[in-house]
Design brief:
The complex is a heterotrimer. By secondary structure, chain A is an alpha+beta fold. Helix content of chain A is 28%, strand content 21%. In chain A, a hairpin with a 4-residue loop joins β4 and β5. The relative contact order of chain A is 0.11. In chain B, 38% of the residues lie in helices and 10% in strands. Chain B has eight helices and five strands; from the N terminus they run ααβαββαβαβααα. In chain C, α1 runs parallel beside α10. By secondary structure, chain C is mainly α. Chain C has one domain. In chain C, 50% of the residues are buried. Chain C is globular and about 55 Å long. The chains are: A alpha+beta, B alpha/beta, C mainly alpha.
């Protein structure tokens, strides 16, 4: 399986990410593979994975906002039931021109993910059905809330009547002082 | 009524525009809905009201609408371990018949719309139990873009049960506190809502942008 | 004139007794069910408080004139069913308005309430109400068949359509009861009684989880109080009817209480033991073996 995917990955200019290296002292799962693809090659590569590679299940489809690098990273998590193997396809798109090809022709339920991504990140997927309809936020006005330049705390304080008197404590010191004042520190 | 909103101008503007004539209902469907404001219903006097309050407190029918993650704490109440039936509490699947609305934890704007509609469809006197810290001050979702912080700015609340999540025992204690309040005749959320109708509606309309439902749901 | 006044007084006494008996019986059986589930359960007087609370509600909403007809027809159906059944054999107070053809009228009144409910529920405009009503009417039509066959069998056995006559024919010992003289009719009737009680195997009509509460979805406050009052009376009436038809009637109130309690206990016993049927399953069930038993009972009486 691995060789097969790798061979086609070369064709689609996809490169695997750190399969053998340890991340955070932990060895990566054997049945999980991260692939990074260019934006133009992404949908052809995913199509190949679905139709010929046997990865017929779209498990997850989301985006991450890397505001420092001015990109959105779109993540497709595919699963193959025959091989019991996951593949994560990572695509970086420009944050200023947030537009990605739709994959609703491959999996109809991807349209719902795309609807959500448009609502939360403002990423458009031309041709995707029901894209501009309300999904979770009914009648949202303002910038997409999951973009990191949107200050949720400020928005919440402005909109939702914060109750005065909220304090934040460090749990460890607070418990030591309030709940067990006489006990010696054991941690 | 205290109003600690920090954008008074916006509220005032909404209040000015507040025509409240079911304008947001779909075309041609306005005739199906009531178009009158809620009215304050005077309670009975003397011993009759005390007796009625006793009956109300001993027969609490919960609206079975799981509004947040706290709804999972309501289910164990029906089981033989906690057995809420012995306190005269039972779930009721339709707002028309229920008397107690349990807000199960955080309420997002989308849920808030349904909460308002269900609350207004209940027949008074109706009681609201805010379950979990989220209904009090937003809890762990206090800085979220889509979760309300204070429930009592949108519907009148009788009893809060703090905790994240409160256990079923805490819920039972909360219901008993609600009973004591009802017996003492202190739970008048329905009339409070009718008296401060404009204030509540302005607050609701400030967050619910796609209203698309009747302004009067009774 | 004095006769009419006395009759009115007797009717009121009779109604008062059956209402309280029905409410207490409902509360007791809720308690029994709770014990089966290992709970303590609600207080026995909970049905009283519920009715009181519903009638004490400050606001109430209705959806047009027909909406009133639902609870009113329901209550009329319950009262009609009860008032034509002689409760206690030989008693003036509890003989109600029994006459020579009352069995037919009672069978009609059992159906009547649900039809009235269909009007009210339809007017409420809530989509779940007509679903509940159509399920209720379908199931009712299905269990009416074995019940009607059992009644035909008894009527041809004793040659009368009067409940008093049927009870009179069963006097003089336990072996004279229809349950022993015509066991097939008893079996068919008691199975349809399960459906009529709308307890567990056949409780999909009320279905508190699937479709909110069935036909009375939009009923609130006083309307709901009326329906609950009717349920108590109707329950009592059904129990008394089946006691009269199959188990020899009652000579005094104590016998009536014992027999109806055991009858209701049988319903709760079955309800606590069996899961629910879907409406199509329950209709198929009633049109199957119970109907065949009923036909057999009729044929045995006719030949």
């Amino acid at each position: 399986m691995y060789e097969n995917v790798m061979k086609s990955a070369e064709r689609f200019k996809a490169r695997p990410l750190g399969r053998d290296q340890k991340i955070g002292g932990m060895k990566q799962r054997e049945d999980l593979l991260f692939m990074k693809v260019e934006q133009e090659q992404a949908v052809p590569f995913i199509t190949w994975l679905k139709e010929l590679g046997g990865f017929g299940h779209l498990v997850l489809f989301t985006a991450v906002d890397f505001i420092e690098q001015d990109i959105f990273q779109i993540t497709y998590l595919l699963h193959s039931y025959e091989q019991h193997h996951d593949i994560v396809v990572l695509v970086e798109i420009d944050r200023q021109k947030a537009e990605m090809e739709s994959i609703h022709h491959l999996w109809p339920h991807a349209a719902t993910y795309q609807q959500e991504l448009f609502e939360m990140f403002g990423i458009t997927f031309p041709g995707s059905p029901r894209l501009y309809e309300d999904f979770a936020l009914e009648g949202w006005q303002g910038p997409p809330p999951m973009r990191r330049d949107f200050d949720t705390k400020e928005y919440s304080e402005k909109t939702y009547f914060p109750r005065p008197g909220r304090v934040t404590h460090d749990p460890a010191t607070y418990m030591k002082e309030q709940l067990y004042p006489g006990e010696a520190q054991t941690w | 009524m205290d109003n600690d909103s920090n954008n008074k101008e916006q509220l005032d503007e909404i209040r000015k525009q507040l025509t409240l004539a079911n304008n947001d209902v779909r075309e041609g469907e306005q005739a199906y809905f009531c178009d009158a404001r809620p009215v304050v219903v005077e309670p009975y006097r003397g011993i009759l009201e005390r007796f009625a309050n006793w009956a109300r407190s001993e027969s609490l029918w919960i609206l079975g609408f799981g509004t947040g993650c706290g709804a999972i704490e309501l289910r164990p109440l029906m089981t033989s371990r906690y057995d809420m039936y012995r306190f005269g509490i039972q779930p009721r699947p339709t707002p028309r018949q229920a008397g107690v609305f349990v807000i199960g934890g955080y309420a997002s704007v989308k849920t808030m719309k349904r909460i308002v509609r269900s609350y207004e469809q209940m027949q008074g006197p109706k009681f609201v139990v805010g379950l979990g810290s989220c209904t009090i001050n937003g809890g762990m979702y206090w800085d979220s873009y889509n979760t309300i912080n204070r429930l009592d700015h949108y519907i009148p609340v009788d009893v809060y049960i703090a905790g994240c999540m409160p256990r079923p025992e805490a819920l039972l204690a909360g219901f008993n506190a609600l009973k004591a309040k009802i017996r003492a005749g202190e739970c008048d959320g329905m009339n409070k809502y009718a008296q401060n109708f404009d204030w509540y509606k302005a607050n609701q309309k400030q967050i619910i942008k796609h209203w698309e439902m009747p302004d009067y749901n009774w | 004139m004095k006769d009419i006044a006395m009759k009115a007084l007797y009717t009121l006494i009779s109604l008062f007794v059956i209402l309280n008996y029905g409410l207490l019986l409902t509360g007791t059986m809720a308690r029994v069910r709770a014990k089966v589930q290992g709970r303590i359960g609600q207080p026995v007087y909970q049905p009283y408080i519920d009715i009181l609370k519903n009638n004490f509600l400050r606001t109430s909403i209705y959806h047009g004139v027909m909406f009133f007809l639902g609870p009113v027809f329901r209550l009329a159906g319950g009262l009609g069913t009860y008032l034509f059944i002689p409760v206690i054999f030989g008693s003036t107070i509890f003989s109600n308005f029994a006459f020579s053809g009352d069995l037919l009228l009672v069978m009609y009144f059992i159906f009547f309430g649900q039809l009235g409910m269909a009007l009210g529920a339809g007017q409420s405009g809530h989509p779940y109400s007509p679903i509940g009503v159509s399920r209720g009417l379908a199931q009712m039509t299905a269990f009416e068949l074995p019940f009607a066959l059992a009644v035909i069998s008894i009527a041809s056995q004793y040659g009368t359509l009067s409940i008093t006559g049927i009870v009179a024919a069963q006097q003089g010992g336990i072996l004279n009861w229809v349950a022993f003289t015509n066991p097939l009719a008893m079996v068919a009737g008691m199975i349809s009684f399960l459906g009529m009680s709308m307890d567990n195997p056949f409780s999909i009509v009320l279905a508190p989880q699937e479709i909110p509460i069935g036909p009375p979805t939009e009923m609130n406050a006083g309307f709901l109080g009326m329906l609950q009052t009717n349920r108590a009376i109707f329950n009592g009436a059904k129990l008394v009817l089946f006691m009269n038809l199959f188990f020899g009637g009652a000579g005094n109130l104590l016998v009536m209480v014992v027999k109806t309690f055991l009858l209701y206990f049988y319903v709760v016993f079955v309800g606590a033991s069996f899961p629910r049927f879907r409406p199509d399953q329950s209709i198929r069930f009633f049109l199957g073996i119970p109907t065949l038993i009923g036909i057999a009972a009729v044929v045995l009486q006719m030949v």
